Amino acid sequence: GVRVVMTRETDTYVDLPDRPRTAKQQGASVFVSIHANASTRSAVAGSETYYLSPQSLVLAQLIQEELGRVPGLANRGVRTANFLVLREADMPAVLVEVAYLSNADEEARLRQAAFRQRLAEAVGRAVQRFLAVFPVPAH
Length: 139
What we know:
about 20% strand; globular; alpha/beta; single chain; four-stranded mixed sheet
């Protein structure tokens, strides 16, 4: 019941300003930027969700709550950040770091389609929960 617009479906680079611009042009109700994190410390693991505006905090919290239900995935919490994609979005916007590529176990899990599916479903459930509370305004 939710229309999803992907900025890309292959491993190609899309300029940062073009990402929220695409969301605006497509009339998006929410903007979710999904990434895999990295650290200089290979032991760091887990998911975290970033937000900037107060309207985005609830969406970030719901996403972290749903990702926290994925077995074996540490919940690193909700954080605020002044990322361009969050700053330029004029709708609730979050940047989700689903796991760490620099952690060998998480990198191996990210290579598994079933794990990526679980992550996607968790984010999808959170978006649906958010939209149930903050419905899309009528145009």
